[in-house]
Structure formats: C-alpha cells, structure tokens
C-alpha cells in the first residue's frame, strides 16, 4: 500500500538513512580534521568489558569510556544490490543490498578502519538485519572487489570478518538490529517494529544467537536492541501498555535474556519510541523519544548494563516526522527552534535520563545524528553547529550517521569513496561540517576513574513479574500465580506504591548486604511481628530478626507475600511507620525520583531498610500496600 501515511512515515524514517529532503548544492568551507591516535594506542587505552556508573560508560578498570562513535551503514540494506551501486536503474526504492557494510567493493576494510581512526572515534555502531543473519547465499564477487578474501562468504560471514577486523584495531563494536528485512528502512516496509514481519520469539532467538556468536570477542561491547521503533498503518508501538506491541516490555525481557542466557558482558542499549500517532494536523502525533522513561524505566537483572539511546536530525522535530509535502504537518522541525529552545527540547526528550539519583539514571547515547555535506540551508547548518555545541556541553556519547558512503550518493557520509578508491569528506577539507566535527571529537571531556554511584531502580509489576535478582531467579517461583518483584542482587527494597505494583530498590546509604550463604525467606503471615503494633488494625508481613525486604508479590492489588534476605551483619531494631495510603510519604527531595507516577508512594530513608509491609483487606482498600516498617541500618 502506498498512500499519504506511508509517504509521511517513509520520510520520517529517513532518520536512520541520514538523508534529507533534496539538499541544495554544496558550499565548501575547507577545514581539515586532525588525525587521531594510532590504532595501537586505541587498543591500549581501554579494557573491556564495558559497564555503567551513573550517567557514564566505564571500562573494566572503572575508567570513563566515552562512546565517540560512527555508524558503518550497509549490512541492514541500502541499495538494490546488483553490485553496480552507482547505476540509478538499480535503485528500486532501496529494496535490497548485498547485506554487508558499505565500501568493501571500493577499498580494503583496513583502509576504512584507518579512516575511522583518522576521524577520531573509538567505537562503531554496526547495523544488521534479521534477514541478513539467515541468508546463506554467497555475496556477489563485485560487492567485495576490494576485499577478494571475502569472496564466496555469506553476508553473516562477511559481518564476522568486519567485526573481527574492527575489534582487532581496538574499536568497540555495538551490534545494532537496524531492520527485520534487508530493505532500507524506513516506511511501511516490515521494519516498523521489532515484530512487524517476524515474531517476537524469532527476534529474541536471533539476538541470543548473535550475542553468543561474539561472546568471546570482548570488544563487542553492546547490543542496540532495535532501531527507531515506529507506527504501522494501523497502530502504534507503546511503552508499558502490556500488549504484544509493548516496546518497554519487549526490550526489558530481551535485555535480561541477553545478560542471563547469552553474554553477561554486553551493554543493553534501548532506544525510545521514534514515532506515535498519525502525522496530520489536528490528530495526536509526536516523537516520544525517551520521554516515557521518566515514568517507566528499565531495571535489568544486572545493574550497570543499561544505556538509553536517541536520534536527532534537523529536518525532523519533537512533533514532526520530517516529511516534506504530502504528510507534512505544521509543527516546527528541530532546525526551526532557537538555540535555547533546541537545548531545552533535547534535554526534555533525552538528556534528562542522565540526571543522577533517579530510577531512570543511565548513560544516553545519541546513536544517530548528521547532515549532508552539500547542505546549504542556513537553518540546517546552524542546527548542526548548535547540536554539536549541545553534545560538547553535555559531554555526551554520540554516533554520527553514517561514516562511509559513495561519492555522488553518500552526501551524508563523513568519508566518501569513489570507484577508484579516492576519498573525499571532512578529512580532506572542502566540507562545511569539518570544523564542527573537529570540535566534537577533540572537545575536553571527563576521563579517568568514575566513582561508583548509588543505584536506584524501579520494579514494575503493572503487567508481569519483575524478578531482577539472579539468585532468586535461580531458585524458582517463590509465589506461584502472583506477580512478583525482587530487587537486583546487592540492593534492598525501600519504596512501594499504594496502587499499581511499583517498587523502588537501592544500594544507597549504609545498606545491609545479603548473606549469600542463606536462602531468602518467604513471609505470608504475622509470625515475626513483635510487641508494639506498628500498624494497628492492618495485616503486617514482617521480616524476621536481621532480615530485610528485597521483594514482594501481589494478587491483583493485594499483597500476597514478602521476600526477606538475611543480612551479613546484625541490624538495628528501632523503626518507624511510613504510611502512604492517603498521600505520598517520602524523604525530602525524593531520592530515586517518582517511581510510580500518579500513585501514592511510601519510601524509607537512605539510611534505613524496609522490614515489613502493612495492608488492609477492607473492601475499600483491597489489600493494597498501605505502610512500610522502616528501620535504621
């Protein structure tokens, strides 16, 4: 079906393609970029695997590893794939490619990687399609003309070689599931959601297989779960809707499976929703990006592995798909915003997630942005410079789209190669983007050790279990038939919502640690409630001596049981009751943030631990949590 909606969505989805609407001729401004450190220095400068500490990505030594990245376009599909990419007759709507990173027909892979070193980056976002993983046909010889040793290989085997070459040079590689089919995204092409042209089970199986395939290569550092989730003709993807199109739930589940079943070293990278609604003036439509994370964030089974991701291009906007003509709305594009408006919008849509001490705190990787070298629109040029200013001011992780293209077709690439292998782009000068690129990759940024920071994590039982402890998972179902929430290992439960099933976990303050030699105790009665009724008239499930809450379960809205860990030391017994059935009752400033938006919440202080939950089975209250017993640690 080709109609107005398809056209508008197709243009919007060019976010991934790095293409703008009919750019005008170039206006050169020669500014070369200085060369980067040699490959040996890059390999020696960091030690895998990567993890996170607060808003920063760190290496195995705890040193900040700023993702200064480029996208190596191509394996997800980009041209028709006859081998003659320069022939316009072969551009049949970008249907198929030879499913490999671009440039292998023009220059050796070593030269492309040398270009990446010169660009000053340390990491590569490497797209793939699910179709590519299963294509057993050898790639055409013409597609690897400059790399004859790749002849006769399947697309996945070529992908293997590129991954091995890039990581051998010291680059960190992030695998990016860009599309389902190998058609160039984006539009109504079967790639709108992770499950549009394949089942969610197949998507998960493909990811698990790929993560296992590269498990022994420690410089394969991340799994970017899916690119630019967006609307189909009939419906939107949603965030925590509890159905088959729930992107929050799908990414949460797959992230946990990758860490527990395939490769515990990977960073799990989750992009927000790229588009919801029908892009017509008068109807609701917007680009959610990461804004839903404020209300519902991810808590992975391994804390310290989550990275959030967002994409920004000047021709799109917070409520604009990027369409020109048919399907275009009257909403402003990012390039139409003033510098101050742009900065505020970027912070609202994405960079807020780096705020310390929140349930959503995580690094934010701007894994796509870019502009064409032949762009002369002063608004787009001003947007690009301002966007780079914002990346520098926020010391942000980034990935430019794309790194490699074709002279005559790759107007957005940082480096274009013609058929003779001659290179043009920001490294040679004559490219208006060069000065901004140089500023970006050479800007001062935080380096060195990053101290460990307090973790604050949300448990979301709205629609399913949230058992985020490896140890508890290994012991099986501790309250069959109920919805269960358990904090990640090393954390304790400090907050609960009166309705909806949300909880808050932390390791902040003088936190008691669980004794690993003991089994958590399930409590379903009042046997541990001592003298002095801390919640008169209410049923109380309380941990025994020297135990603290790490989990809870619900049946409907009613408390079903609590889970208590044995502390590795003696705990205090002085306590207080924190009621939250008629309003919020949280410490000043609310460390951890609003973990249950719209619901009453109770929360112990950072120097306390929760030892019990009180609830009433009265008809009006329905057994929902009403109070916490908070004790000094």
The major sheet is characterized as: 8 strands, parallel, barrel
Structural class: alpha/beta
Q: Could you report the average pLDDT, rounded to the nearest whole number?
A: 89
How many helices? The count is 11
Share of helix among residues?
10-25%
Describe the structure.
By secondary structure, the chain is α/β, with parallel strands linked by helices. The protein has 2 domains: 4-19 and 35-442, Alpha-Beta Barrel (TIM Barrel), CATH 3.20.20; 456-632, no CATH class. The protein is built from 11 helices and 28 strands. It has helices at 4-12, 39-44, 109-119, 130-134, 155-168, 200-213, 247-262, 339-349, 378-393, 434-442, 470-474; strands at 51-53, 56-58, 68-71, 123-129, 172-179, 220-224, 267-271, 276-277, 285-286, 306-311, 364-368, 397-400, 404-406, 415-417, 423-425, 456-460, 466-467, 483-486, 492-497, 502-506, 521-523, 539-542, 547-555, 558-566, 575-579, 601-603, 608-615, 625-632. β8 and β9 (285-286) form a beta hairpin. α6 (200-213) runs parallel beside α7. Residues 108-401 form the Glycoside hydrolase family domain. Residues 76-101 are annotated as: Disordered. It comes from Streptomyces coeruleoprunus. Pfam families: Cellulase.
């Amino acid at each position: 079906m080709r109609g107005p909606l398809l056209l508008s969505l197709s243009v919007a989805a060019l976010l991934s393609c790095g293409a703008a609407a009919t750019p005008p001729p170039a206006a050169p401004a020669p500014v070369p970029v200085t060369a980067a450190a040699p490959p040996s220095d890059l390999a020696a400068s960091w030690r895998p695997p990567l993890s996170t500490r607060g808003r920063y990505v760190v290496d195995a030594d705890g040193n900040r590893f700023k993702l200064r990245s480029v996208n190596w376009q191509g394996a997800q599909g980009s041209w028709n794939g006859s081998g003659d990419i320069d022939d316009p007759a072969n551009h049949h709507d970008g249907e198929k490619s030879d499913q490999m990173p671009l440039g292998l027909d023009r220059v050796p892979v070593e030269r492309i990687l040398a270009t990446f070193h010169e660009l000053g980056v340390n990491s590569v976002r490497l797209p793939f399609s699910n179709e590519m993983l299963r294509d057993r046909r050898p790639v055409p010889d013409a597609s690897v003309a400059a790399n004859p040793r790749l002849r006769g290989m399947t697309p996945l085997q070529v992908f293997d070689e590129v991954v091995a070459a890039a990581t051998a040079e010291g680059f960190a590689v992030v695998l990016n599931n860009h599309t389902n089919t190998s058609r160039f995204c984006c539009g109504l092409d079967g790639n709108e959601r992770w499950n549009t042209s394949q089942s969610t089970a197949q998507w998960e199986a493909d990811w698990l297989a790929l993560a296992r395939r590269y498990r022994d290569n420690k410089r394969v550092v991340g799994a970017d779960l899916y690119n630019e989730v967006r609307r189909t003709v009939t419906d939107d993807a949603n965030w925590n809707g509890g159905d088959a199109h729930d992107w929050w739930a799908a990414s949460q589940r797959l992230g946990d499976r990758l860490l527990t079943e395939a490769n515990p070293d990977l960073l799990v990278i989750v992009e927000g929703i790229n588009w919801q609604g029908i892009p017509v003036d008068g109807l609701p439509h917007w680009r959610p990006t990461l804004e839903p994370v404020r209300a519902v964030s991810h808590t992975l089974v391994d804390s310290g592995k989550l990275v959030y991701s967002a994409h920004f291009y000047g021709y799109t906007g917070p409520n604009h798909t990027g369409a020109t003509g048919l399907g275009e709305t009257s909403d402003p594009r990012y390039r139409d915003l003033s510098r101050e408006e742009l900065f505020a919008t970027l912070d609202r849509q994405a960079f807020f997630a780096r705020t310390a001490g929140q349930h959503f705190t995580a690094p934010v990787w701007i894994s796509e942005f870019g502009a064409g070298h032949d762009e002369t629109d002063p608004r787009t040029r001003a947007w690009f410079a301002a966007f780079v200013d914002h990346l520098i001011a926020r010391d942000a992780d980034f990935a430019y789209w794309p790194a490699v293209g074709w002279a005559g077709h790759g107007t957005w690439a940082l480096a274009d190669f013609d058929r003779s292998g001659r290179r043009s782009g920001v490294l040679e000068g004559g490219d208006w983007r060069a000065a901004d690129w140089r500023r970006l990759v050479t800007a001062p940024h935080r380096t060195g050790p990053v101290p460990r920071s307090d973790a604050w994590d949300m448990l979301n039982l709205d629609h399913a279990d949230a058992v985020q402890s490896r140890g508890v998972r290994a012991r099986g179902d501790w309250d069959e038939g109920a919805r269960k929430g358990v904090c990640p290992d090393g954390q304790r439960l400090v907050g609960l919502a009166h309705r909806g099933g949300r909880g808050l976990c932390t390791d902040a303050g003088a936190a008691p640690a669980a004794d690993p030699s003991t089994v958590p105790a399930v409590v379903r009665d009042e046997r541990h409630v001592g003298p002095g009724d801390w919640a008169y008239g209410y049923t109380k499930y309380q941990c025994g001596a020297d135990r603290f809450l790490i989990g809870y379960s619900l049946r409907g809205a009613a408390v079903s049981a609590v889970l208590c860990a044995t502390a590795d030391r003696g705990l205090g017994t002085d306590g207080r009751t924190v009621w939250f059935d008629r309003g919020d009752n949280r410490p000043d400033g609310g460390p951890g943030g609003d973990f249950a938006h719209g619901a009453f919440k109770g929360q112990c202080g950072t120097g306390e631990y929760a030892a019990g939950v009180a609830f009433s089975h009265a008809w009006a209250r329905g057994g929902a949590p009403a109070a916490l017993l908070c004790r000094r640690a």
